[in-house]
Write a structure and sequence with these properties.
By secondary structure, the protein is an all-alpha fold. It contains 16 helices and no strands.
Protein backbone atom coordinates (compact mmCIF):
# COMPACT_ATOMS: atom_id res chain seq x y z
CA UNK A 1 0.00 0.00 0.00
CA UNK A 2 2.85 2.33 0.89
CA UNK A 3 4.64 1.53 -2.38
CA UNK A 4 1.42 2.15 -4.33
CA UNK A 5 0.95 5.51 -2.59
CA UNK A 6 4.54 6.45 -3.42
CA UNK A 7 4.01 5.57 -7.10
CA UNK A 8 0.81 7.59 -7.20
CA UNK A 9 2.45 10.54 -5.44
CA UNK A 10 5.31 10.40 -7.95
CA UNK A 11 2.82 10.40 -10.81
CA UNK A 12 1.00 13.41 -9.38
CA UNK A 13 4.30 15.28 -9.04
CA UNK A 14 5.20 14.43 -12.64
CA UNK A 15 1.82 15.63 -13.91
CA UNK A 16 2.08 18.88 -11.94
CA UNK A 17 5.67 19.37 -13.16
CA UNK A 18 4.45 19.19 -16.77
CA UNK A 19 1.15 21.00 -16.28
CA UNK A 20 2.03 24.21 -14.46
CA UNK A 21 4.22 25.74 -17.22
CA UNK A 22 1.47 25.04 -19.78
CA UNK A 23 -1.10 26.67 -17.49
CA UNK A 24 1.09 29.75 -16.98
CA UNK A 25 1.74 29.95 -20.72
CA UNK A 26 -2.00 30.07 -21.36
CA UNK A 27 -2.43 32.75 -18.67
CA UNK A 28 0.31 34.75 -20.38
CA UNK A 29 -1.36 34.52 -23.80
CA UNK A 30 -4.66 35.63 -22.26
CA UNK A 31 -3.06 38.64 -20.57
CA UNK A 32 -1.33 39.69 -23.79
CA UNK A 33 -4.68 39.52 -25.58
CA UNK A 34 -6.21 41.79 -22.95
CA UNK A 35 -3.33 44.28 -23.25
CA UNK A 36 -3.54 44.24 -27.06
CA UNK A 37 -7.27 44.94 -26.93
CA UNK A 38 -6.81 47.76 -24.43
CA UNK A 39 -4.15 49.46 -26.58
CA UNK A 40 -6.01 49.18 -29.87
CA UNK A 41 -9.24 50.19 -28.13
CA UNK A 42 -7.71 53.61 -27.44
CA UNK A 43 -7.71 54.27 -31.19
CA UNK A 44 -11.47 53.84 -31.57
CA UNK A 45 -14.28 51.35 -32.11
CA UNK A 46 -13.50 50.80 -35.80
CA UNK A 47 -9.85 49.96 -35.10
CA UNK A 48 -10.89 47.63 -32.28
CA UNK A 49 -13.37 45.84 -34.52
CA UNK A 50 -10.80 45.49 -37.32
CA UNK A 51 -8.13 43.97 -35.06
CA UNK A 52 -10.66 41.79 -33.24
CA UNK A 53 -12.03 40.32 -36.45
CA UNK A 54 -8.62 40.03 -38.11
CA UNK A 55 -7.04 38.27 -35.14
CA UNK A 56 -10.02 35.91 -34.87
CA UNK A 57 -9.57 34.85 -38.50
CA UNK A 58 -5.77 34.62 -38.14
CA UNK A 59 -5.63 32.48 -35.02
CA UNK A 60 -8.58 30.30 -36.01
CA UNK A 61 -6.65 29.42 -39.17
CA UNK A 62 -3.30 28.96 -37.43
CA UNK A 63 -4.71 26.87 -34.57
CA UNK A 64 -6.48 24.62 -37.06
CA UNK A 65 -3.28 23.77 -38.93
CA UNK A 66 -1.17 23.77 -35.76
CA UNK A 67 -2.99 20.52 -34.97
CA UNK A 68 -0.48 19.00 -37.42
CA UNK A 69 1.80 18.96 -34.37
CA UNK A 70 -0.44 16.41 -32.63
CA UNK A 71 1.05 13.47 -34.51
CA UNK A 72 4.60 14.68 -34.04
CA UNK A 73 4.11 15.17 -30.30
CA UNK A 74 2.58 11.69 -29.85
CA UNK A 75 5.36 9.98 -31.81
CA UNK A 76 8.11 11.95 -30.04
CA UNK A 77 6.62 10.97 -26.67
CA UNK A 78 6.62 7.30 -27.69
CA UNK A 79 10.25 7.48 -28.84
CA UNK A 80 11.32 9.17 -25.61
CA UNK A 81 9.49 6.49 -23.62
CA UNK A 82 11.22 3.80 -25.67
CA UNK A 83 14.65 5.39 -24.92
CA UNK A 84 15.16 6.24 -28.58
CA UNK A 85 16.33 9.89 -28.66
CA UNK A 86 17.60 9.66 -32.25
CA UNK A 87 14.17 8.47 -33.39
CA UNK A 88 12.62 11.37 -31.49
CA UNK A 89 14.98 13.80 -33.24
CA UNK A 90 14.06 12.45 -36.68
CA UNK A 91 10.34 12.69 -35.93
CA UNK A 92 10.66 16.22 -34.54
CA UNK A 93 12.57 17.37 -37.63
CA UNK A 94 10.02 15.88 -40.03
CA UNK A 95 7.19 17.52 -38.06
CA UNK A 96 8.92 20.90 -38.34
CA UNK A 97 9.47 20.48 -42.08
CA UNK A 98 5.75 19.71 -42.41
CA UNK A 99 4.96 22.81 -40.36
CA UNK A 100 7.17 24.98 -42.57
CA UNK A 101 5.49 23.71 -45.75
CA UNK A 102 2.00 24.14 -44.31
CA UNK A 103 2.96 27.58 -42.96
CA UNK A 104 4.08 28.73 -46.39
CA UNK A 105 0.84 27.58 -48.00
CA UNK A 106 -1.31 29.19 -45.26
CA UNK A 107 0.67 32.44 -45.43
CA UNK A 108 0.34 32.82 -49.19
CA UNK A 109 -3.32 31.78 -49.24
CA UNK A 110 -4.18 34.09 -46.34
CA UNK A 111 -2.34 37.04 -47.88
CA UNK A 112 -4.17 36.77 -51.19
CA UNK A 113 -7.57 35.82 -49.73
CA UNK A 114 -7.62 38.68 -47.21
CA UNK A 115 -9.32 40.96 -49.73
CA UNK A 116 -12.09 38.44 -50.41
CA UNK A 117 -12.59 37.54 -46.73
CA UNK A 118 -13.36 41.13 -45.77
CA UNK A 119 -15.61 41.45 -48.80
CA UNK A 120 -17.72 38.52 -47.58
CA UNK A 121 -17.91 39.81 -43.99
CA UNK A 122 -20.53 42.52 -43.51
CA UNK A 123 -18.66 45.30 -41.76
CA UNK A 124 -18.26 49.03 -42.29
CA UNK A 125 -15.91 49.95 -45.18
CA UNK A 126 -13.27 51.50 -42.91
CA UNK A 127 -13.26 48.41 -40.68
CA UNK A 128 -12.82 46.22 -43.77
CA UNK A 129 -9.87 48.30 -45.01
CA UNK A 130 -8.04 48.17 -41.69
CA UNK A 131 -8.93 44.53 -41.05
CA UNK A 132 -7.63 43.55 -44.50
CA UNK A 133 -4.34 45.33 -43.80
CA UNK A 134 -3.99 43.63 -40.38
CA UNK A 135 -4.72 40.19 -41.80
CA UNK A 136 -2.32 40.52 -44.74
CA UNK A 137 0.60 41.50 -42.50
CA UNK A 138 -0.02 38.86 -39.84
CA UNK A 139 -0.79 36.07 -42.31
CA UNK A 140 2.68 36.44 -43.82
CA UNK A 141 4.05 35.50 -40.40
CA UNK A 142 2.24 32.17 -40.75
CA UNK A 143 5.46 30.82 -42.32
CA UNK A 144 6.97 31.08 -38.84
CA UNK A 145 3.88 30.68 -36.66
CA UNK A 146 3.07 27.11 -37.68
CA UNK A 147 6.65 25.83 -37.15
CA UNK A 148 6.58 27.63 -33.77
CA UNK A 149 3.41 25.88 -32.64
CA UNK A 150 4.61 22.50 -33.91
CA UNK A 151 8.04 22.94 -32.29
CA UNK A 152 6.29 23.67 -28.99
CA UNK A 153 4.19 20.52 -29.46
CA UNK A 154 7.20 18.25 -29.96
CA UNK A 155 9.00 19.85 -27.01
CA UNK A 156 5.99 19.05 -24.82
CA UNK A 157 5.91 15.52 -26.24
CA UNK A 158 9.49 15.15 -25.06
CA UNK A 159 8.42 16.30 -21.60
CA UNK A 160 9.72 19.89 -21.83
CA UNK A 161 6.87 22.29 -21.07
CA UNK A 162 9.10 25.01 -19.60
CA UNK A 163 10.84 26.04 -22.84
CA UNK A 164 7.55 27.00 -24.58
CA UNK A 165 6.67 29.07 -21.48
CA UNK A 166 9.99 30.95 -21.56
CA UNK A 167 9.69 31.59 -25.31
CA UNK A 168 6.10 32.80 -24.88
CA UNK A 169 7.21 35.14 -22.10
CA UNK A 170 9.89 36.73 -24.32
CA UNK A 171 7.83 36.82 -27.54
CA UNK A 172 4.71 38.18 -25.89
CA UNK A 173 6.77 40.80 -24.07
CA UNK A 174 8.13 41.92 -27.45
CA UNK A 175 4.56 41.99 -28.77
CA UNK A 176 3.40 44.30 -25.98
CA UNK A 177 6.39 46.64 -26.37
CA UNK A 178 5.99 46.60 -30.16
CA UNK A 179 2.29 47.45 -29.81
CA UNK A 180 3.11 50.36 -27.55
CA UNK A 181 5.76 51.77 -29.90
CA UNK A 182 4.20 51.09 -33.30
CA UNK A 183 0.51 51.72 -32.62
CA UNK A 184 1.04 55.16 -31.07
CA UNK A 185 4.37 56.13 -32.66
CA UNK A 186 6.57 56.56 -29.59
CA UNK A 187 10.38 56.78 -29.16
CA UNK A 188 10.84 57.88 -32.76
CA UNK A 189 8.82 55.05 -34.30
CA UNK A 190 6.05 55.86 -36.81
CA UNK A 191 2.43 55.79 -35.58
CA UNK A 192 1.04 52.91 -37.66
CA UNK A 193 -2.19 52.27 -35.78
CA UNK A 194 -3.76 48.93 -36.72
CA UNK A 195 -0.83 48.13 -39.02
CA UNK A 196 1.49 48.66 -36.05
CA UNK A 197 -0.41 46.08 -34.03
CA UNK A 198 -0.08 43.66 -36.95
CA UNK A 199 3.67 44.26 -37.32
CA UNK A 200 4.23 43.77 -33.58
CA UNK A 201 2.29 40.48 -33.64
CA UNK A 202 4.19 39.25 -36.69
CA UNK A 203 7.63 40.16 -35.31
CA UNK A 204 6.91 38.51 -31.96
CA UNK A 205 5.92 35.26 -33.68
CA UNK A 206 9.02 35.29 -35.91
CA UNK A 207 11.19 35.83 -32.83
CA UNK A 208 9.40 33.02 -31.00
CA UNK A 209 10.02 30.66 -33.92
CA UNK A 210 13.77 31.35 -34.02
CA UNK A 211 14.11 31.08 -30.25
CA UNK A 212 12.36 27.70 -30.22
CA UNK A 213 14.42 26.40 -33.12
CA UNK A 214 17.51 27.55 -31.24
CA UNK A 215 16.44 25.51 -28.21
CA UNK A 216 15.92 22.42 -30.37
CA UNK A 217 19.26 22.84 -32.17
CA UNK A 218 21.16 23.54 -28.96
CA UNK A 219 19.59 20.44 -27.47
CA UNK A 220 18.18 19.52 -24.09
CA UNK A 221 17.97 16.24 -22.21
CA UNK A 222 15.87 14.47 -24.83
CA UNK A 223 15.80 16.45 -28.10
CA UNK A 224 18.86 17.70 -29.94
CA UNK A 225 18.25 18.40 -33.61
CA UNK A 226 21.04 18.92 -36.09
CA UNK A 227 20.83 20.80 -39.41
CA UNK A 228 21.08 17.61 -41.46
CA UNK A 229 17.91 16.28 -39.76
CA UNK A 230 15.88 18.82 -41.74
CA UNK A 231 17.21 17.69 -45.12
CA UNK A 232 16.58 13.96 -44.74
CA UNK A 233 13.03 13.33 -45.92
CA UNK A 234 11.59 10.22 -44.28
CA UNK A 235 8.47 9.10 -46.07
CA UNK A 236 7.40 6.60 -43.40
CA UNK A 237 7.72 9.07 -40.52
CA UNK A 238 5.85 11.75 -42.50
CA UNK A 239 3.08 9.26 -43.25
CA UNK A 240 2.74 8.38 -39.57
CA UNK A 241 2.67 12.04 -38.55
CA UNK A 242 -0.04 12.83 -41.11
CA UNK A 243 -2.09 9.75 -40.18
CA UNK A 244 -2.25 10.92 -36.57
CA UNK A 245 -2.50 14.65 -37.27
CA UNK A 246 -5.16 14.88 -39.98
CA UNK A 247 -8.02 13.83 -37.64
CA UNK A 248 -6.83 16.50 -35.19
CA UNK A 249 -6.81 19.12 -37.97
CA UNK A 250 -10.33 18.08 -38.97
CA UNK A 251 -11.42 18.29 -35.33
CA UNK A 252 -10.11 21.85 -35.05
CA UNK A 253 -11.91 22.72 -38.30
CA UNK A 254 -15.18 21.36 -36.92
CA UNK A 255 -14.72 23.35 -33.72
CA UNK A 256 -13.99 26.56 -35.62
CA UNK A 257 -16.91 26.25 -38.02
CA UNK A 258 -19.41 25.18 -35.36
CA UNK A 259 -18.22 27.97 -33.03
CA UNK A 260 -18.88 30.59 -35.71
CA UNK A 261 -22.35 29.17 -36.45
CA UNK A 262 -23.13 28.98 -32.72
CA UNK A 263 -22.11 32.63 -32.21
CA UNK A 264 -24.21 33.66 -35.22
CA UNK A 265 -27.26 31.98 -33.68
CA UNK A 266 -26.66 33.59 -30.27
CA UNK A 267 -26.58 37.06 -31.88
CA UNK A 268 -30.25 36.48 -32.75
CA UNK A 269 -31.08 36.86 -29.05
CA UNK A 270 -30.21 40.57 -29.21
CA UNK A 271 -27.28 42.83 -28.37
CA UNK A 272 -27.60 42.63 -24.58
CA UNK A 273 -27.90 38.84 -24.56
CA UNK A 274 -24.96 38.48 -26.94
CA UNK A 275 -22.83 40.83 -24.82
CA UNK A 276 -23.75 38.81 -21.71
CA UNK A 277 -22.83 35.58 -23.53
CA UNK A 278 -19.44 36.98 -24.53
CA UNK A 279 -18.73 38.17 -21.00
CA UNK A 280 -19.78 34.81 -19.51
CA UNK A 281 -17.51 33.06 -22.04
CA UNK A 282 -14.62 35.29 -20.93
CA UNK A 283 -15.23 34.36 -17.30
CA UNK A 284 -15.55 30.65 -18.08
CA UNK A 285 -12.36 30.65 -20.14
CA UNK A 286 -10.45 31.12 -16.89
CA UNK A 287 -11.28 27.52 -16.01
CA UNK A 288 -9.94 26.21 -19.33
CA UNK A 289 -6.35 27.00 -18.32
CA UNK A 290 -5.90 24.16 -15.79
CA UNK A 291 -7.78 21.78 -18.11
CA UNK A 292 -5.43 22.68 -20.96
CA UNK A 293 -2.36 22.19 -18.76
CA UNK A 294 -3.45 18.81 -17.40
CA UNK A 295 -4.42 17.65 -20.91
CA UNK A 296 -0.89 18.42 -22.19
CA UNK A 297 0.73 16.73 -19.19
CA UNK A 298 -1.46 13.65 -19.51
CA UNK A 299 -0.83 13.32 -23.25
CA UNK A 300 2.93 13.42 -22.65
CA UNK A 301 2.85 10.83 -19.87
CA UNK A 302 0.54 8.47 -21.75
CA UNK A 303 2.69 8.63 -24.89
CA UNK A 304 5.94 8.08 -23.01
CA UNK A 305 4.56 5.19 -20.92
CA UNK A 306 3.20 3.44 -24.01
CA UNK A 307 6.53 3.97 -25.75
CA UNK A 308 8.16 2.33 -22.74
CA UNK A 309 5.80 -0.66 -23.04
CA UNK A 310 3.97 0.21 -19.79
CA UNK A 311 0.27 0.32 -20.73
CA UNK A 312 -0.90 -0.03 -17.11
CA UNK A 313 1.09 3.07 -16.12
CA UNK A 314 -0.23 4.91 -19.20
CA UNK A 315 -3.78 4.09 -18.15
CA UNK A 316 -3.07 5.23 -14.58
CA UNK A 317 -1.56 8.46 -15.91
CA UNK A 318 -4.74 9.22 -17.81
CA UNK A 319 -6.89 8.51 -14.77
CA UNK A 320 -4.80 10.60 -12.40
CA UNK A 321 -4.55 13.50 -14.84
CA UNK A 322 -8.33 13.48 -15.24
CA UNK A 323 -8.83 13.38 -11.46
CA UNK A 324 -6.52 16.36 -10.97
CA UNK A 325 -8.32 18.33 -13.66
CA UNK A 326 -11.68 17.46 -12.11
CA UNK A 327 -10.49 18.82 -8.77
CA UNK A 328 -9.10 22.04 -10.26
CA UNK A 329 -12.01 22.78 -12.58
CA UNK A 330 -14.52 21.62 -9.98
CA UNK A 331 -13.12 24.28 -7.66
CA UNK A 332 -13.49 26.85 -10.45
CA UNK A 333 -17.08 25.69 -10.96
CA UNK A 334 -17.79 26.24 -7.27
CA UNK A 335 -16.38 29.76 -7.58
CA UNK A 336 -18.57 30.42 -10.64
CA UNK A 337 -21.68 29.16 -8.87
CA UNK A 338 -21.03 31.13 -5.67
CA UNK A 339 -19.88 34.49 -7.05
CA UNK A 340 -21.30 34.80 -10.60
CA UNK A 341 -22.34 38.46 -10.40
CA UNK A 342 -19.02 39.57 -8.96
CA UNK A 343 -17.08 37.76 -11.68
CA UNK A 344 -19.22 39.14 -14.49
CA UNK A 345 -18.96 42.64 -12.99
CA UNK A 346 -15.18 42.57 -13.54
CA UNK A 347 -15.77 42.35 -17.30
CA UNK A 348 -18.87 44.57 -17.58
CA UNK A 349 -19.04 47.10 -14.73
CA UNK A 350 -22.12 49.29 -14.76
CA UNK A 351 -24.06 47.17 -17.29
CA UNK A 352 -26.96 45.96 -15.13
CA UNK A 353 -28.72 43.85 -17.78
CA UNK A 354 -25.49 42.28 -19.00
CA UNK A 355 -24.47 41.47 -15.42
CA UNK A 356 -27.84 39.85 -14.67
CA UNK A 357 -27.90 37.69 -17.81
CA UNK A 358 -24.19 36.92 -17.69
CA UNK A 359 -24.36 35.86 -14.03
CA UNK A 360 -27.20 33.46 -14.82
CA UNK A 361 -25.20 32.00 -17.70
CA UNK A 362 -22.00 31.54 -15.73
CA UNK A 363 -23.90 29.90 -12.84
CA UNK A 364 -25.27 27.37 -15.34
CA UNK A 365 -21.78 27.04 -16.81
CA UNK A 366 -20.50 26.05 -13.37
CA UNK A 367 -22.37 22.76 -13.77
CA UNK A 368 -20.42 21.79 -16.89
CA UNK A 369 -16.93 22.22 -15.41
CA UNK A 370 -16.43 18.53 -14.46
CA UNK A 371 -17.61 17.45 -17.92
CA UNK A 372 -15.26 19.90 -19.64
CA UNK A 373 -12.37 18.69 -17.46
CA UNK A 374 -13.03 15.05 -18.36
CA UNK A 375 -13.43 15.88 -22.05
CA UNK A 376 -10.23 17.91 -22.27
CA UNK A 377 -7.97 15.50 -20.37
CA UNK A 378 -9.35 12.23 -21.73
CA UNK A 379 -9.06 13.63 -25.26
CA UNK A 380 -5.47 14.60 -24.45
CA UNK A 381 -4.75 11.10 -23.15
CA UNK A 382 -6.13 9.50 -26.31
CA UNK A 383 -4.15 11.84 -28.56
CA UNK A 384 -1.01 11.08 -26.56
CA UNK A 385 -1.63 7.41 -27.29
CA UNK A 386 -2.01 8.14 -31.01
CA UNK A 387 -5.80 7.68 -31.00
CA UNK A 388 -6.77 10.94 -32.72
CA UNK A 389 -9.84 9.67 -34.58
CA UNK A 390 -12.14 9.05 -31.63
CA UNK A 391 -11.89 12.63 -30.25
CA UNK A 392 -12.81 13.80 -33.78
CA UNK A 393 -15.91 11.57 -33.80
CA UNK A 394 -16.93 12.83 -30.36
CA UNK A 395 -16.51 16.46 -31.43
CA UNK A 396 -18.58 15.85 -34.56
CA UNK A 397 -21.38 14.13 -32.63
CA UNK A 398 -21.38 16.64 -29.78
CA UNK A 399 -21.56 19.66 -32.07
CA UNK A 400 -23.87 18.41 -34.79
CA UNK A 401 -26.07 15.99 -32.86
CA UNK A 402 -26.47 17.98 -29.64
CA UNK A 403 -25.24 21.58 -29.61
CA UNK A 404 -26.29 22.87 -33.04
CA UNK A 405 -29.78 21.34 -33.34
CA UNK A 406 -30.73 22.07 -29.71
CA UNK A 407 -29.45 25.65 -29.93
CA UNK A 408 -31.50 26.14 -33.09
CA UNK A 409 -34.61 24.82 -31.34
CA UNK A 410 -34.01 26.91 -28.22
CA UNK A 411 -33.50 30.17 -30.13
CA UNK A 412 -35.64 29.95 -33.26
CA UNK A 413 -38.43 27.48 -32.38
CA UNK A 414 -39.00 27.65 -28.63
CA UNK A 415 -37.69 31.26 -28.40
CA UNK A 416 -36.11 30.78 -24.99
CA UNK A 417 -33.53 32.96 -23.24
CA UNK A 418 -29.73 32.88 -23.03
CA UNK A 419 -29.92 30.62 -19.98
CA UNK A 420 -31.48 27.88 -22.10
CA UNK A 421 -28.59 28.17 -24.59
CA UNK A 422 -26.13 27.56 -21.76
CA UNK A 423 -28.14 24.54 -20.61
CA UNK A 424 -27.59 23.18 -24.13
CA UNK A 425 -23.83 23.59 -23.71
CA UNK A 426 -24.02 21.66 -20.41
CA UNK A 427 -25.78 18.81 -22.25
CA UNK A 428 -23.20 18.93 -25.03
CA UNK A 429 -20.23 18.64 -22.64
CA UNK A 430 -22.00 15.90 -20.65
CA UNK A 431 -22.57 13.96 -23.87
CA UNK A 432 -18.95 14.32 -25.01
CA UNK A 433 -17.48 13.53 -21.60
CA UNK A 434 -19.63 10.41 -21.26
CA UNK A 435 -18.60 9.07 -24.68
CA UNK A 436 -14.91 9.65 -23.98
CA UNK A 437 -15.12 8.08 -20.50
CA UNK A 438 -16.80 4.95 -21.83
CA UNK A 439 -14.23 4.58 -24.61
CA UNK A 440 -11.34 5.20 -22.23
CA UNK A 441 -12.61 2.58 -19.78
CA UNK A 442 -12.79 -0.04 -22.54
CA UNK A 443 -9.01 0.25 -22.97
CA UNK A 444 -8.82 -0.38 -26.71
CA UNK A 445 -6.84 2.86 -27.14
CA UNK A 446 -3.92 1.23 -25.28
CA UNK A 447 -3.25 -1.02 -28.28
CA UNK A 448 -3.52 1.66 -30.99
CA UNK A 449 -0.55 1.55 -33.32
CA UNK A 450 1.15 4.93 -33.59
Amino acid sequence: MVALDQVQAGLWRRILHLAWPAILEMVLHMMVGIVDTAMVGRLGAEELAAVGLGSRILFSTIFTFAALGTGGAALVARSIGAKDPEGANRIAAQALVLGLLAGGIVALAGFYLANYIFTWVRVEPQVAIMGRKYLRITMLAGVFMLPLFIANAVLRGAGNTRAPLVVALIANGVNIIGDYLLIFGLAGFPALGVAGAAVATALSQVLGCFLTLGILLRGNVDLHLRPHNFFCYDREIMRRILRLSIPAVLEESVLTISSLIFIFMVTSLGTVAFAAHQVANSVESLSFMPGHGFAIATATIVGQKLGGQSPAEANDGGQQGTLMALMAMGAMGLLFFTFPRQLVYLFAPGEAQVISLGARAIRIGALEQPCIAATMVLSGALRGAGETRYPLYVTLLGNWLVRMPLTYLVIYVWRLSLGAVWIVTVLDWLFRGSLLYRYYRRGKWLTVKA
